[in-house]
Amino acid sequence: MAVEQFIISLCLILLLGKLLASLFEKLGLPAVVGEITAGLLLGPTVLNWISPDPTLAVLAELGVILLLFAIGCETSIKHLALAGRPAVAIACVGIVAPFIVVALSSVLWLTDSVFTAIYLGCALTATSIGISLRVLASAGQSQTPVGHTILGAAVIDDVAGVILLSLLFNFASQGQFDAISALWLMAKLLLFLAIAPPLARGLLYLARGLKPLADKAGYEVIITLSLICLFAWLAHLFGAPALLGGFAVGLALSRQFVSPVNRYLVNPFKFTHSMERSSQSLVQVFGPIFFVYVGIRLDLSQLDLSAAGVLLLLWLSVLAIASKLVSGWFAGKAWQAKAVAGSAMVPRGEVGLVFAELGLQTGIIDTKLFTELVVIIAITTLVGPILLKWSLTQLHRHPMLPAGDKKS
């Protein structure tokens, strides 16, 4: 993409994304729905002013990483750990149910290849952490018991998705399953999640000690962005999604960070709070780029728009949504908590798009299946926040105690 084209594309993405986000918020809908709609308008589907481009894709990926950083800053590791058993149950059902339902449906109606059907099933096991937790944060629910359960389930879902993706590519390239490679990948992912936050915390102490006394040139925001990029790169090196690197740095900045060495070190709250505050503008600028880019990636002209083709896409979308909603059953006794957790797992977002893109690049799926898969991902990404917004309203009308199943 030429420089002048990139500049005007970025201008349109930021302006129209903000305009429609504000409009949708006034209508009582999540801002992310407005931003995705902005992408649909700008992309090949409607105006065709902006086409998918690697440079824009990199900016969108950076937006997701920064969104996860912001979420990590407000996350308590202790509360996340306490969410353990329900989070694991939600994640497991949210992976197994879509895989079985979508894979079987794909064999019946979409493709003759069993391996391709398995790949489509795996692609729709994904959950977008960024989309749902942004809606939760805007509703003030990201730090509630249900919010921590959802975050834990989404992280598990993401890690499992990376493992599934790696296993499928390993099988596609070698023609056989390599158990040793699979176990090694799992070990690396778990190791990263264990060591990244404490390591980032240690680097924060170092950065605070090295700060020049008279510095007024944005030292904190430079250090923050540098750490986010470093740990996103390390996450990729470990075979994990880069966005988990941003989340790890956010956890390290969190005022609720806990570790065995905390008692021996003075809490650098003033410095970390300054880092968090100075980086908010980065999140507010780059975060919406991802959601607009989701809409840009769609080109509905490649779809089978016959009655049978449209009905098939809608049916598969319903299956993709329903198979995630059932995972919320383990979020508590009250139906409002179940609805919130299930709705939060519905959007596939950036993780599903990674599956789709890599599947196309490696020849596992063709252009037609890619378009159909992206449309299903987009529908879940649009419907998920709407369902979550509605279920949060129900939860607000019936507020619950920390146990999650009693009315206050």
Strand-helix topology:
Elements: H1 3-26, H2 31-42, H3 54-73, H4 77-82, H5 84-109, H6 114-123, H7 129-138, H8 145-174, H9 179-210, H10 219-237, H11 243-253, H12 269-278, H13 280-296, H14 307-325, H15 335-344, H16 349-361, H17 367-397
Helix pairs in contact: 1-2, 1-13, 2-13, 3-7, 3-11, 3-13, 5-6, 5-8, 5-14, 6-16, 7-17, 8-9, 8-15, 9-10, 9-11, 10-11, 10-12, 14-17, 15-17, 16-17
Structural key phrases:
single chain, 408 residues, mainly alpha, 0% strand, globular, disordered C terminus
Which whole number gives the mean pLDDT? Answer: 82
Give the CA-CA distance, first to last residue.
Answer: 56 Å
Number of strands: 0
CATH class: Mainly Alpha
Q: So what's the overall shape?
A: globular
Query: Which structural category do the helix and sheet elements fall into?
Result: mainly alpha
Structural domain count: 1
Give a brief outline of the structure.
This protein has 408 residues and is mainly alpha-helical. Helices cover 74% and strands 0% of the residues.
Question: Describe it for me?
Answer:
The protein has one domain: Na+/H+ antiporter like fold (Up-down Bundle). It has 408 residues and is mainly alpha-helical. The protein is globular, with a radius of gyration of 21 Å. Helix 3 (54-73) packs across helix 7, helix 9 (179-210) crosses helix 11 and helix 10 (219-237) crosses helix 12 (269-278). The chain starts with a helix and ends in an 11-residue tail after the last helix. 74% of the residues lie in helices and 0% in strands. Residues 400-408 have low confidence and may be disordered. The chain contains 17 helices and no strands.
